[in-house]
């Protein structure tokens, strides 16, 4: 498969600028891989496609306020910082993206907040993801983290809209978000409400959780036509023993194992035994999934409608089948489904 094959008739007005009024009332396209049949439902109807004993696997990562605005020393030039990864807790080192990057050099100091609540020094500009900053802060770690999060804002992707609003603090977060560390939300999980999870529990549908801290690598542009030459950025994954055991039990019993989102699917496929069983795992993954690919554990998945040329679109096409998925996207376009982070959902059976 080549990069150019992952384009479709996309226009900016197809993107959802705001979430649905209620989490579980976005639209749901149901795509059957065996029959090619497409159904149009509301997301809360997803329980109709599952039986007692089936399992949903969720990503419980939590988005932190990763975007900060500050000023450069001497010139006062406005600088935007996007926190990517904490490199060293004691030394207050962070891997960041800087915009505009061309104005920043090693040794420059950056000031954030009223009365310069935080000061950072650029100590490296050779990382693949941008810059390394050392925050200069006299207080203890908890005080430093509180200051950092006080100044930060929800890292809503700017292709949704440039202004972050109060609704985003809640809705750009799943209701089961627990383990802090993501700079982007696992979007398929945004559709689940407390009421929907309760209905699943009452029906006897199991739930399991893993953690993949979504980084910007999940959205990095693919700039090579030959997909085998694209390198994904590494992201941290934690698959607990209990999750692996529950998923394997359902798989062994012949039930549906549903991966909620591409981050869950990538996590699962990063830790599979030779006989197709999920293994506990704690580490990093840079797995890039595209056709042809044989999936080992999940036999269905929930996902949003992804942008052209995106690695998420490539993974979903590998799972659904390229031709079937591209046909479904054309149906979604004509039926005016909403695309992107705050958009509608697809259940692939």
UniProtKB/TrEMBL annotation:
This protein's species is Alistipes hominis
Q: What class of enzyme is it?
A: transferase
| The gene coding this protein | queA
Q: Which family does it belong to?
A: Belongs to the QueA family.
Please name the InterPro entries in this protein's record: QueA (IPR003699), QueA_dom1 (IPR042118), QueA_dom2 (IPR042119), QueA_sf (IPR036100)
* Primary location recorded for the protein, binned into one broad class: cytoplasm
Instruction: Look up the EC number in the record and give it.
Output: 2.4.99.17
Q: Catalytic activity annotated for this protein?
A: 7-aminomethyl-7-carbaguanosine(34) in tRNA + S-adenosyl-L-methionine = epoxyqueuosine(34) in tRNA + adenine + L-methionine + 2 H(+)
Tell me where it resides: Cytoplasm
Pathway annotation: tRNA modification; tRNA-queuosine biosynthesis
* Pfam family, any one: Queuosine_synth
Partners and quaternary state?
Monomer.
The UniProt entry, under SUPFAM superfamilies, shows:
QueA-like
Name the UniProt record assigns to this protein: S-adenosylmethionine:tRNA ribosyltransferase-isomerase
